[in-house]
Design a protein that fits this description.
The complex is a heterotrimer of chains A (241), B (215) and C (286). With 241 residues, chain A is an alpha/beta fold. Chain A has 9 helices and 10 strands. Chain A has 2 domains: 159 residues, P-loop containing nucleotide triphosphate hydrolases (Rossmann fold); 61 residues, no CATH class. The chains are: A alpha/beta (241), B mainly alpha (215), C alpha/beta (286). Chains B and C meet through helix 1, helix 8 and helix 9 of B and helix 1, helix 2, strand 2 and helix 9 of C.
Chain lengths: 241, 215, 286
């Protein structure tokens, strides 16, 4: 069964066509990477998949329910998903309060152990009492990861969750992601610039170019024997972007 | 003279403080609402609000005098030349400032925080609360600036208050009187008290605001 | 934690304001009847009211709220029923006010004098001139700087009358936008005196304000004693027929009190910097 299903999704900003007739299926429990050069429409696609932005046409279904994009729409469904933006922001609260936010938003009281575990997983327990705004780039991403996973979403959508980070932070976050998926069997969609990261993490990879999905398939096949020559050029590093 | 001094000082805080409280109670929710909502005519509302920032206090005072006068439509309320009338006048002057500044504080923080709250599973109310919470530094500034305007204002309170000793004489109108009577020194001393009140108030608010910034 | 702080600040603020309201009401609980006296700024600024009103307040168990404004605004307050009694110094306007039915009657209370002041150098040479209108003519001829209140106050009205009696078309003088010698200020008396002092100009002033701030000014009295310069004050209880809120009985009481022999002698005895400024002259029929 597919966890995410996009059908005929198109999106333009003014005259610029950003997405054109995207059809994409992500299987339940998959770790799905979307790769492609800047401007391919990856971020816009993610925002549509998690309900932040409606498509001009086409539809998206998550966990079997169609997204409707209104204010307060799909609240129950939305609470089974999560999204980490490329540049996550902290609320003006402590790190602990930030991570506990999704719980309190669901009316879940207490949950201290759950929050502690989420913080521990990203090695932020020591900074739990610090103001969220004082975190460094890597710490901020780790906080955002803990915050997005603390309530155990079944679908997790990540936009460049390790961009501009140092290797230690990348390693820490990748490990956290892998163990989260293993533990929950969650479906993960990951947009990344970092081809090696896609290779390391993803079961399935899709290559996007100019607002369209050029090719998708098992990660090893995409990297080793792409059928489309543009995919080949991209994964071999021949495409200038 | 000392009891007189205490009197006008207290009355200044009473009038401007009440006006700021009442104006904030109305203007903060209104500003949040306007800042978060997208609706047609929002730009017009914004422009009108910003224009009212500079609304001349004497004009507000004059309009209010005409309304509250015994022969005016609200004359039966018997509010003219009472602190209540002064509170009313300053409320009218402070309100647009708090509405406008709250509105811009909320709408500038709005998008990122709204989206973050949204994807973390907040419903509409919770999202609104979060955005307001995030904008609180700006909202506090709005209240501070509003209070400053009220405290420094003289044109409206002298018209609807009448500058009556023991009753409606506040620091600014007392300064007008002292200047007229030629007692510059005393007028300046009153001015210093006015500044001191503002400073204490701003210091307290600023301290809180700095905490709000970081946490 | 932070929510508590936010609430604490709001609560503290509310408590302070509530405490001040309590203080205000306790202060004003004494319960005397409030009488709104609209008068001119010069009356208040002279300090006369401060020195005599407590007598009225204790005799009548009243609390007089003095609203000091320009003569025009004082009459307007009476007309609208926003004041109970008027003490003004613009006889013709006051008589009109009573004739139009806004006031019950007008009694003379006292007078003080207007004097013409100017720099000691006296460029127009008016020092010692007996008649104000002659002095104004000399000022006009020499184009020496003259500062006018320009605010339609009683003093300004008196000034206009002098120009008229000297044979000038007042609007011709005041309407010259490029006039270098006639300055219409639109200010109160003390401000006008100060401006005149800075500009080494002539001006017309009441004696009370003059003696109050004389020491701060570089001006001197040049013309005094012309009976046309007498500044007559009158008291008018506002007619409460149209405005039930007006405390007419108390207003009549005030008029009676201010024209009573005891008060009249208090007025005569009042001094500013050692100068007797007010002369009581009520025309009330006992």
């Amino acid at each position: 069964m597919s966890a995410i299903k996009a059908e005929g999704v198109s999106k333009s900003f003014g005259k610029r066509v950003v997405l054109e007739d995207i059809n994409l299926e992500v299987g339940g429990g998959d770790l799905f990477a979307i790769i492609g050069p800047s401007g391919a429409g990856k971020t816009t696609l993610l925002r549509i998949l998690c309900g932040l932005q409606p498509p001009d046409s086409g539809s998206v279904a998550v966990l079997g329910e169609r997204l409707s994009y209104g204010k307060g729409a799909n609240l129950t469904l939305r609470r089974r998903m999560s999204f980490i933006a490329q540049k996550p922001i902290a609320f003006r609260e402590t790190v602990r309060e930030n991570v506990a936010y999704p719980l309190s938003a669901r009316g879940i009281e207490g949950g201290k152990e759950v929050v502690d575990r989420a913080l521990e997983q990203v090695r932020l327990l020591g900074l739990a009492g610090n103001p969220g705004a004082t975190l460094s780039g890597g710490e901020m991403q780790r906080m955002a990861f803990a915050r997005a996973t603390v309530y155990g979403p079944e679908v997790l959508i990540l936009d460049e969750f390790t961009a501009h980070l140092d290797p230690q932070n990348i390693k820490l976050l990748e490990d956290a992601l892998v163990s989260y998926q293993k533990e929950k069997g969650a479906t993960i969609v990951l947009v990344t610039h970092n081809l090696f990261q896609a290779k390391r993490l993803a079961k399935t990879t899709a290559f996007m170019l100019d607002g369209a999905v050029v090719e998708r398939g098992e990660t090893s096949r995409i990297f080793n024997s792409p059928t489309d020559e543009r995919t080949g050029a991209y994964v071999r590093g021949e495409m200038v972007y | 003279m000392e009891s007189d001094l205490l009197d006008v000082t207290f009355l200044s805080i009473l009038v401007s403080g009440s006006a700021t409280l009442i104006a904030s109670a109305i203007a903060i929710p209104l500003g949040c609402f306007l800042g978060m909502r997208k609706f047609r005519g929002k730009e017009i509302v914004r422009t009108v609000t910003y224009t009212l920032y500079g609304f001349p206090p004497v004009v507000a005072g004059l309009v209010l005098y005409i309304l509250l006068s015994s022969s005016g439509p609200l004359g039966s309320l018997q509010l003219l030349f009472t602190p209540a009338a002064m509170v009313l006048a300053q409320t009218l002057l402070v309100m647009p400032i708090v509405v406008g500044l709250t509105m811009s504080a909320v709408s500038t923080t709005s998008r990122d925080y709204t989206e973050t709250a949204f994807v973390l599973g907040a419903d509409g109310w919770r999202t609104a609360r979060t955005v307001i919470h995030e904008a609180r530094v700006g909202i506090i500034s709005a209240v501070m600036i509003g209070f400053g305007r009220a405290l420094a204002e003289v044109g409206a309170v002298i018209l609807v208050g009448g500058n009556i000793q023991w009753h409606t004489r506040v620091l600014t109108t007392a300064i007008v009187l002292e200047t007229r009577e030629g007692d510059f020194g005393y007028g300046l001393a009153l001015g210093a008290i006015l500044l001191a009140i503002g400073m204490v108030f701003f210091y307290l608010m600023k301290r809180y605001q700095d905490k709000g910034m970081l946490a | 934690m932070k929510k508590i702080q936010m609430a604490a600040i709001a609560v503290a603020f509310i408590v302070v304001v509530a405490a001040l309201w309590t203080w205000y009401f306790v202060q004003n609980r004494k319960g005397p009847i409030h009488l709104k006296l609209a008068t001119t700024t010069s009356t208040q600024d002279s300090g006369l009211l401060d020195s005599i009103l407590s007598d009225f307040e204790s005799k009548y168990n009243a609390d007089v709220e003095v609203i000091a404004v320009g003569t025009g605004q004082a009459l307007e307050l009476g007309r609208n029923g926003d004041a109970d009694v008027l003490l003004a110094h613009s006889p013709s306007k006051e008589i009109d006010f009573v004739n139009q039915g806004y006031g019950l009657y007008r009694w003379k209370v006292m007078y003080n004098q207007f004097v013409i002041v100017g720099p000691a150098s006296d460029p127009a040479g008016i020092n010692g001139t007996a008649l104000a209108r002659t002095a104004f003519g000399m000022i006009y001829d020499s184009s020496a700087t003259f500062c006018s209140r320009g605010d339609q106050s009683g003093t300004h009205t008196a000034e206009q009358n002098i120009w008229k009696s000297a044979g000038y078309n007042y609007s011709g003088i005041s309407a010259q936008s490029n006039s270098t010698w006639y300055l219409s200020l639109g200010q109160g008396m003390a401000d006008t005196l100060r401006t005149a002092s800075e500009k080494r100009a002539y001006t017309l002033t009441d004696e009370a304000t003059w003696y109050n701030i004389e020491s701060q000014l570089g001006l001197t009295i040049l013309v005094k004693g012309d009976t046309t310069l007498f500044n007559q004050y009158g008291v008018i209880p506002v007619n409460g027929t149209a405005h039930p809120a007006v405390r007419q009985d108390m207003a009549i009481g005030f008029a009676n009190w201010v024209t009573s022999p005891e008060t009249q002698s208090m007025i005569n005895n009042y001094t500013i910097s050692g100068h007797h400024v007010f002369v009581s002259n009520t025309d009330r029929v006992p």
